[in-house]
Write a structure and sequence with these properties.
It contains 10 helices and 16 strands. The relative contact order is 0.15. The chain folds into 2 domains: 32-252, 3-Layer(aba) Sandwich (Rossmann fold), CATH 3.40.50; 269-323, Orthogonal Bundle (Arc Repressor Mutant, subunit A). With 358 residues, it is α/β, with parallel strands linked by helices. A 9-stranded mixed beta sheet has the order 7-6-8-9-3-10-11-12-13, with helices on both faces.
Length: 358
């Protein structure tokens, strides 16, 4: 005998909420694996080949697995870590860990794999996460290119990228507090918007909760970490790459590194005379008069000030007053953020090409 209700259409508004319900909710605060840089959820880190991305994420992995300091100065909570080091072998992993740790033992809290069978990345990560359901684990995939499936028949490049990104994001959505950091190459092209540097279409960046750009000019040891995302305030921080492979923040705090990033951008590609003026202006956060700069630097200072302002390296808040551009707001890692959950219980299904229907 058939169920008399089986022919009834589903209630499409079953999961609808109203403003009063939303106003009464108390959502947990957003957590960070790396304060101010890597929050919970799916983070896509992008950078040019051979600039030190793998060294960077290995440093993160070792810091979190031991409960130490990321980027040299940022204290992190100890969490289980899985590093999918798909471009490395055991010997290279050992050598790099020892180089970064400077004699300290490799933390037992670091699990790693150097090889995956094709199409198994999603179930592999899910299986490992299931071992740590309450530990807010960190998973690092290095790199996405090693597991990226081909587009399906009739599927656009954007569709493939968004399908893959959504499958990766869902791993974290189903395990609140966990973090998945994925290393990926850039487009090798300059862009005014740094998110446009993500290799491929906008599908990957659109699916990610957070996008982090690691930038360093070839043969330079200074660089920038740029952060943007759905729940995190945008930030830009100056970093340095040591001979050991370790990335460190340029300053004792995120705020100091943000100030250093503004100065780094302001002095990029300018001559010694301009750098001298920028250094002087930087010593006066509230602004400095052109006459004072002229008195300190020389009679040609006004001409340099005008050029630096026209190029955006300086700003003029008032007539005759110059200062460095404003420093972006540095995030508070304890800020309250809502979880990205619609509460509807809906789940689209399709073959991700990564080993699981998502």
């Amino acid at each position: 005998m058939s169920d008399p209700d089986s022919s009834q259409p589903p209630d499409l508004l079953a999961g609808m909420r109203n403003g009063a319900w939303l106003d009464a909710q108390h959502f947990p605060a957003l957590t960070y694996a790396i304060p101010g840089v890597i929050p919970e959820g799916f983070t896509l880190q992008v950078g040019a080949p051979k600039i030190g991305k793998s060294w960077c994420v290995l440093g993160y992995a070792l810091a979190v697995a031991s409960g130490g300091y990321a980027l040299g100065v940022l204290p992190v909570d100890k969490r289980p870590v899985l590093l999918l080091a798909l471009e490395d072998g055991h010997r290279r992993m050992q050598e790099r860990c020892r180089s970064l740790l400077g004699g300290d033992p490799i933390p037992a809290g670091l699990d790693y794999l150097t090889d995956l069978r094709p199409g198994t990345v999603i179930p592999t990560i899910a299986a490992w996460m299931s071992r740590h359901p309450d530990d807010a684990p960190l998973v690092i995939l290095d790199t996405l290119g090693k597991v990226m499936p081909p587009a399906m028949a009739g599927e656009s490049a954007y569709g493939r990228d968004y399908r893959v990104g959504t499958a990766l994001k869902r791993l974290c959505d189903e395990r609140p507090g966990s973090s998945l950091l994925v290393n990926h190459h850039d487009r090798k092209a300059e862009s005014a918007d740094f998110v446009d540097s993500v290799s491929g279409t906008h599908g990957l960046a659109g699916a990610a909760d957070t996008v982090v750009i690691l930038h360093r000019e070839r043969h330079e040891q200074t660089g920038l970490i740029m952060v943007t995302g759905r729940d995190v305030p945008e930030g830009e921080y100056a970093v340095k790459l040591a001979d050991s492979g370790a990335w460190t923040l340029d300053g004792p705090t995120l705020a100091d590194a943000a100030t250093a990033a503004v100065k780094q951008r302001a002095t990029a590609g300018v001559g010694d005379r301009s750098i001298e003026i920028l250094d002087l202006v930087g010593k006066h956060p509230g602004g400095v008069r052109s006459s004072d700069v002229e008195r300190e630097i020389g009679p040609d200072a006004r001409r340099y000030l005008a050029r630096l302002a026209d190029s955006g390296r300086l700003v003029r808040p008032r007539r005759g007053i110059y200062q460095l551009p404003p420093i972006p707001r540095v995030p508070s890692v304890s800020m309250s953020q809502e979880q990205d959950d619609d509460g509807m219980g809906h789940r689209d299904t399709w073959d991700t090409g990564l080993g699981e229907s998502a």
